[in-house]
Design goal:
Shape: globular
CATH class: Mainly Alpha
Strand order of the largest sheet: 1-2
Radius of gyration: 18 Å
Mean pLDDT: 94
CATH architecture: Alpha/alpha barrel
Order of helices and strands: HHHHHHEEHHHHHHHH
Number of helices: 14
Largest sheet: 2 strands, antiparallel
Structural class: mainly alpha
Strand content: under 5%
Number of domains: 1
Length: 276
């Protein structure tokens, strides 16, 4: 495993060290164990910039995308469900869990007309621009999981996915968004559906380790959360591609370098490769 790090073009900390963002704070603290002296002040500064724009109802401009991304940022900064801004944000998410999808309950949908276009132009975070209702539902489930709120209301949506979803149900982003939550949630992670999905992704994986038609960094990160042997085998096959794809400055990706660097490094942590 250490040999993977040795084969990288450069130490990824060279890039991470200069990130004045929630992702930078998270990676320096949780992965590299190299919190800088200014990180405590930066954490406070970033927190204040985030919460100053929060509406009284707990959302940010009643937009799901902004609300979810800001809650994710607060999680990266280390804030928990007890924090007032986090708590009110999560309550707003619960307020939009009123939808049924083809008769199945538990789905999240904001009904804000600006959300679909905002989602399509946003590549920040662990979820990508798929169908609006799937994007909002899976992202919301993930946030409740992050903050320790795997309650019956959230489980309703997970149970619904287990009843109808298949890895060939929708497009690439919807597929990876749903996989993201099913592979991590206690109710679904050991299900036959996840096993079936992992077999499907194994069939899509090429000799170079990429997955045909699927976003490489997002699926690599999603699979890193699984203890399933099928996931581990695919991750091992993908590692040479991770090495090849690293940029000269230590980062990964093009469109959203911070996000894609996070996805790679957090995945390497999950599978035990990055340990400092």
């Amino acid at each position: 495993m250490t040999s993977v790090l040795e084969k990288l073009k450069t130490d990824p900390f060279n890039y991470v060290a200069n990130l004045n963002s929630p992702i930078g704070v998270y990676l320096r603290k949780e992965l590299f164990k190299k919190e800088t002296a200014v990180d405590a002040a930066l954490r406070k500064e970033l927190y204040e910039k985030i919460v100053v724009d929060q509406s009284a109802d707990g959302s940010w401009d009643k937009l799901f995308v902004k609300t979810a991304n800001n809650l994710w940022n607060l999680a990266l900064l280390g804030f928990r469900a007890e924090d007032r801004s986090v708590k009110t944000g999560l309550l707003w998410l619960l307020s939009i869990q009123k939808e049924k999808y083809r008769g199945h309950p538990g789905f999240f949908y904001s009904h804000n007309r600006k959300d679909p276009s905002t989602m399509r132009s946003t590549y920040y975070g662990e979820f990508g621009p798929g169908c609006t209702i799937f994007y909002q539902t899976t992202y919301a489930i993930h946030l409740f999981h992050l903050f320790g709120f795997d309650n019956e209301l959230v489980e309703t949506a997970v149970s619904s996915y287990l009843q109808f979803w298949k890895p060939t149900w929708c497009g690439a982003w919807c597929t990876i968004n749903v996989l993201n939550v099913l592979i991590e949630h206690p109710l679904s992670k050991n299900s036959r559906l996840v096993e079936s999905a992992l077999n499907h992704f194994a069939d899509l994986q090429s000799k170079t380790g990429t997955w045909k038609g699927l976003p490489f960094y997002h699926i690599f990160h999603a699979l890193s959360r699984s203890d399933n042997a099928l996931a581990k085998k695919q991750l091992g096959k993908a590692l040479p591609s991770v090495i090849r794809r690293q940029n000269g400055d230590g980062s990964w990706g093009r469109k959203e370098r911070q996000t894609e660097t996070f996805l790679v490094l957090d995945a390497l942590k999950n599978i035990g490769i990055v340990r400092y």
